[in-house]
From TrEMBL:
Annotated organism of origin: Streptomyces melanogenes
SUPFAM superfamilies listed in its UniProt record: Periplasmic binding protein-like II (SSF53850), Winged helix' DNA-binding domain (SSF46785)
Keywords: DNA-binding, Transcription, Transcription regulation
Protein name, per record: LysR family transcriptional regulator
PROSITE patterns, sorted: HTH_LYSR (PS50931)
Amino acid sequence: MDLELRHLRVVCAIAEAGSLTKAAAALRMTQPGLSAQLRRIETMLGGALFDRRRDGAVPTGFGELVLTRAQSILPGVDGLLADTTRAARRMSAPDRVRLGSVGGPLLGHLILAVRESLPGTEVTARSHSSPVPLLEDVAAGRLEAAVLGDNPHDELLPHDGVALVPFATEPVFALLPAAHPLAAQEEVDLAQLLDEDWAVPGPDRDRTREYWSSVCALTHRRPFAPYEAEGRQLIEIVRAGLAVSLCQATFIEVPGVAVRPLAGNPLHYRHVLAWRRDGPLAPHHTEILTRVRTGYANTCADSPAYARWLKRGSGEAPVES
């Protein structure tokens, strides 16, 4: 058996984890399987790499030598693989574009825009509750573009090689059971919502839950949230009359729930598009942005609660140029 890069990665993973058990979990291997592989690597290299102790695995002197070399080799190899992957993608016409999205109204418009700009290209998409992993995937070349979102004072951090374009900032609205007394009002005070039980998303890397709590704290109160849910499950809890929650202004009411503006617009959500500057969408980004902006404006007009709110104000969707 010849020494391979994967063997060096195994050795580095064990050293970083400090034990075979933790390293096996990180590598998604069984502990016996990792132990057997380590024995084969040690036989191949000619010496023990780790002292196995009850409290973990400690590199031997010989292991330190191997680790020093491995840690100098692997970053260069990883950089080479990333560079060649991007170069190969630039050199050939794209036959597949991979998109990602958080929850929101823009993914469908983005898919249509990409199809119109790159006819014949296969488009795939996947979603995630948090924008941070999606942004990391765009930066790593695992996605060509993504629909993201962030909150005031907690904006997404820039990544090398990624264009981040804020697209629109909209208010956050109240999500209520349709039969709730507050649903009869044109707008709802945040303080009124805080008299109710809440359903909130789980803690995540986009920190939406923390943002909601911080704004509520300005009223010297915090929401009592016995229900933690997202997506369809959160909507069903509200529909059942068990709790209230918050939603994007472009959320379209479904039977059993009501969407109402918050008085004074205390919370906001920003839509952001991200794409690789050296990816296949970069030459077409202007036309894609134009098409998505048009689609978003139509979505705002088709969202009854938001359309009424806009009509009372500027009458135009807050699309950023």
